[in-house]
Amino acid sequence: MPNLNHLFVTGSVEGQDFRSPLSVRAKPPPERDRNNHGNRLLIQLQAVATQIARLTQVRAAAGAPVHQGVAIALEISPRGTLDPGKQLEWKKDGIEVLSVVETPNAEIVSVYVPPGKLGAFERRVREYLTEENPPRKEGQEPKPRNARLINAISSIRRAAFAEFWTDRDPPPDENQSAVFQIWLRLGTATPGEAYSAFLEAAERLQIAVEPGYLTFPGRAVVAASTTRAVLEQAIDLLDFVAEIRRASFPAEFLLSDLRPFEQAEWVRDMTARTIVTPADQNPPRIALLDTGVNRGHPLLGPLLDAADLHSVLNAWDTTDHTGHGSGMAGLALHGDLRTPDFSRSSCSPAPLGVGKDTSRYWSQLASPLRVDV
Prior knowledge:
Shape: extended
Helix content: 25-40%
Mean pLDDT: 80
Order of helices and strands: HEHEEHEEHEHEHEEEHEHHEHHE
Radius of gyration: 28 Å
Distance between the termini: 56 Å
Low-confidence stretches: 342-373
Strand content: 15-25%
Number of strands: 13
Structural class: alpha+beta
């Protein structure tokens, strides 16, 4: 047993639930004309109900399951007036938040509505129009029931491709081929069941799906190659698409799939496109405390001054003896090398990577990479 005489226990503690020190107050919803606003939302809900009836016919004609739910988009304005996860996810009705997309003046919240549950929204709007909550304090005017919720909702519509698109970059053109990440809502299904159902629907639409999937809480993520136009048809036929993003290729392609001489070709091409421009007179400095840096690397040498390489002991070498410091320097200088090396929209054949299928990843490599030093 070790000697722990230097440790002293002088008391005990009691456990407490965590409370965030940050206090974030939701913005108050705007004041709206009760009758006009409520009736306008009811009209919009009726339009959604009509679209759902038509969608049922489309699904039946396509041989897809008819009794599925639908996604609707709620425009919350101004931003920050509602907490979607708390105020728009109604487990009793099976209403589930799929995604939140921010616009300059609003938040577009897409929610999944199970079959026959659109009335959950209509009921709350009618309560807003006809019922009132008693005033909290004497002398205050009574408030419409559900006022905070309904006043925050500017409009209601059926969700379309734009509401599912959560990538920071804009989506591709309608008929442009691309590889997409499809985030599938699981609901009560297992990831394998959701993946199989998507494969079945994708086969009907001739969507090429990569084998396998990733899982997250409540989601399964698949990669599919198709056009935006075809993907919009898939949204009509499926009720379990939650989000859509661009698929990025794995860095494993650069690190493992290419042979050494092929990696050298890619490095030479990127080096030729790198433009080193002088930065301000007092640019920010980055200090790496690591295993040294390999200045012989074509992507690092022009950006590192030999006078800036130091070691704690003079006998130590400043070159990288494990490879870690060079990798850290590359991240600091160039960031994600997939961005300058590949164009996300090009699928032209690869002149490099002999003997390998790199057509999904290759670009024309026409854009220059600028580095300020």
